[in-house]
What does this fold into?
Amino acid sequence: MALDAEQGQLQPAPESFLAKDLVEDISRDGIDPARRKLLQNALAAAAAAAAAAASMVAPSLMADDDPDIVNLPSWTRSLGKPVVANPYGQPSPYEANIVRRQSPGLTRTDQSSVSFTPLQNLFGMITPSGLHFERHHQGWVDIDPRRHRLMINGLVETPLVFTMEELLRMPSVSRIHFLECGANTGLEWGNVAVPTVQYSHGMLSASEFTGVPVSLLLDRAGFDRQRATVLLAEGADGSSMTRTINLENALDDAMVAYGQNGEMLRPENGYPLRLVVPGVQGVSWVKWLRRLEVGDAPWATKDEVAHYVDLMPDGTHRQYTSIQEAKSVITAPSGGQKLLKQGYYDITGLAWSGRGTVEKVEVSVDGGRNWRPARLEKPLLPKALTRFHFDWVWQGDEVLLQSRVTDRTGYTQPSRAQLIEARGTRSIYHNNAIQTWRISGDGEVHNVQLG
Ligand code: MTE
It folds into this structure.
């Protein structure tokens, strides 16, 4: 896979996507024509050889062309590795390039930084835990679960303190949700067309989270239903991460989660306990969660007055803009990749909405002049990622690829021009504009900003 040259301080995406480059050549029986020809040659030669001399083995004349077909590869002729050679399973060494990447220089220290999920290399709707993006304000911490506590206090009858053991014994739920940092796609506000989807949209991941509903914990503590309107969530790391959460969101589907994709949370993602607030921007998903305080007014903490506010064109700030509005992006083909041949491509990407399920996704190959419906993978889950596909034949011409989503509320993802008209250009957060990838005649894919 050819890559864009490094732009600024950003690292290029790894080589990848080879399977997709070959899609055009794969016929209905799934065999590459070149490989089928080879097989036919081999069979014909074998038949001829068998007729000439029964002792002759399958032809070796093809060995140089394709040793895996004519000569059995070493892994077919040898004993494999024993069980538990990898007590905790790891990806194949051939996938070593598929990793979270940091953008050096984006932040002053590596502790207050971001690592981006390689969206261009993933399938389906779940992010493998080891590739879940990270956003820390003061580094990640390794917490001993035996020493961790969750306190519920504030406007409650009985303040409570839970150990992890107690939380693990309570009734639990497991649900799949996306987690998107409010700053995802933030660089695009400033006309910085970052080279790959990993950097433009990679502060987005999705997992199956398991934990205890917040409503259950608040009920146990006997929260004041007359006065309570908000919760304060506080993390145990050094960043004093504290966020005001609407009680409505908290009682609806929020949970204190200890599980991620069937196992305990990864330390980077908040082990042993984090808040999950589906549909709400990532900063509210407080990691290493140690306290929930019930209150009757927003706390206006540093992370909600100095940060995570939206500067509007008239100079005012929007605060507490927590819901992640509907958004979609084509992940392949995407920036930094190259189409090697003309022919069929499965255009694929992700769509999501903080307000519920995805209703439809449309794809344009002409910069938004014409739109056609994409196929959505099931199940369509609320506040989760939806994988979409669009069958397409590339004829070598220049193309402007876009996707746009409409969610179940009827809201449609805005174009970049529409977003800028409403919000100006001085924001950092909540950029959900339609993304454009330009495919040039030589097949190279670049991030471009239309409008
Ligand atoms: N919680 C604590 N305690 N400390 C943090 O730095 N970062 C927040 C949020 N919760 C943060 C935190 C931000 S800004 C985001 S986007 C998400 O965690 C990122 O979660 P992740 O690192 O699991 O992807």
About this structure: Residues 1-63 have pLDDT under 50 and may be disordered.
